[in-house]
Amino acid sequence: MKDHPTTEELFEAYIKKLHGSKAQKIHQHLENCDECRQVIFDYQKIENQYSQQKFEQPSESVVQNIQAKAKKIYETKPKNFFVFYRIQRLAGVVMGLLIVAGIGIFYKWHDNEFSTFKNNPVSSVSSEEGHELKDKTPSMDGMITPVPPSPKEEYAPSSGGVAGLSESVGPSYNLKNVSFLEEGEGTPRQSLKKGALTEVPKTFDQLDMLFVKALAVQRQGFLYQSPKKILQSEEMFRAIWMQNQNFSRSDQLLYYWALSLEQLGRKEEALEKLTLLEKIKPTYPGIKETRSRME
Amino acid sequence: MMDAKRQTAEVERLNDEVLFGRFKNGDHEAFDCLIQRYQGPIFAYILKSTSNRAAAEDVFQDVFFKVIERREQFRTTVSFKAWLYTIARTTCIDAARKKNRTPLMNSIYVDDENPREEKVKSQEKGQEEVVNDNETNQYLQEALKALPEAQQETFMLKAMHEMTFDEISRIMNCSINTAKSRMRYALEQLRGILFKGSHRK
């Protein structure tokens, strides 16, 4: 019996993947062995029979649909549509990230502004009138009407409070848009440190922002009947005044500063501010009524 | 007129990858050429698994729609033919899953009322030859049906669709050696079925 190659070797010979001496050996065997040669021949015949089968064709309408779709994509969209779409999508993602970063930076700056007054409050800064802050707790007896705090309550002037607060706000400023501090974030009078201001904003824009915040703190003080907030607002008004007396909203500054001083029981100082306001702007709304109330 | 014909002939001579590259750049006629080239083989491939002409045409249309939609994903590191057949295969599997059928090689004939081979052959040959061819083809199809599905598919892709083993391995997601083994087993079994008394001693 001849030494026949294995079926794997015959198959390798059939698909012509044999190399070197092995290929030579098997080819030599095939030349002399009818049986093995028949195997290769049968393989070839089987493949040929199947390869000659004709393929059935799909319907013409199906082919036309496909051709129409292929034609349509280049009629409606630019050739580099996907590139353009990717750039658009990327631009959208970048814009979104920039907006998120901008919001984060704004809130961080917003927090830093109030932390300035929490950690380094104004204390012994002197005004031009020679007034100095005194390390004493202002007397609140009888000055603030004991109304239960209600955040949703509309601000209403108490007997010693302010009349027409919302009316005297300029058209460019809306108190409702200002965010309020949480209760308890005020600076206790006892923690005041003496020393010069270190982190007061210097530009008009920054002073403007600080003024708006001071107003918000003052309003919160009135709403929650919080002496701490009132005191904090007074310090903020003072800091702005000390920084720039030619502040663009100095008339409003003096007015609201006077209100805070009135609530803190410092009527003389409050009247001084009103007097100064009358020199700057005699027609300031509500100044006469406020003065008459204080006197 | 002559220039258009010459241009068409030139396009038809181009290989698949060049034609598809032209299509990606906006030449839809190049894609028409590819459709003409592959509509028969792909439809036949799909027909083997769907066993229903209408469903096969739906799948056929889906396959080429996917080719159009995914044209930017095609990379010349693989052959267009293998990529096309891979899409066809996965689309067939998805369609079969929706109908809860075994994916491939479920039946050979479309239905008994409409034997495909007779329909095709009768257009080309005489009646007697059609009958003989029909019997032969039926016999071949029955023999193929006796094979396990993986061997059937491998054999079909090799013998009927003229794929290389590398392309078959990519389409069927197996190694080249596995594809070769399946082909070998398929040939051995078909030889035993088709040629009686052909078993080796």
How would you characterize this protein structure?
The complex is a heterodimer of chains A (295) and B (201). Chain A has ten helices and no strands. In chain A, helix 8 runs antiparallel to helix 9. Chain B has 201 residues and is an all-alpha fold. In chain B, 72% of the residues lie in helices and 0% in strands. Chain B is built from ten helices and no strands. In chain B, helix 3 packs antiparallel against helix 4, helix 3 packs across helix 5 and helix 7 crosses helix 10. Chain B is globular. In chain B, 34% of the residues are buried.
Number of helices of chain B: 10
State the secondary-structure class of chain A. mainly alpha
Q: What string, H for helix and E for strand, traces the elements of chain B in order?
A: HHHHHHHHHH
Distance between the terminal alpha carbons of chain A, to the nearest Å? Answer: 135 Å
The chain pair forming the largest interface, with residue counts per chain, is: A-B, 35 and 49 residues
Coarse structural class of chain B: mainly alpha
Keywords:
heterodimer; A: 295 residues; mainly alpha; 10 helices; 0% strand; rod-shaped; B: 201 residues; globular
Mind sketching the topology for me?
The complex is a heterodimer of chains A (295) and B (201).
Chain A: H1 7-14, H2 20-32, H3 34-51, H4 60-76, H5 81-119, H6 204-223, H7 227-243, H8 250-263, H9 267-280, H10 287-294
Helix pairs in contact in A: 1-3, 2-3, 6-7, 7-8, 8-9
Chain B: H1 2-13, H2 16-24, H3 28-50, H4 53-69, H5 80-98, H6 116-121, H7 127-145, H8 149-160, H9 165-172, H10 176-194
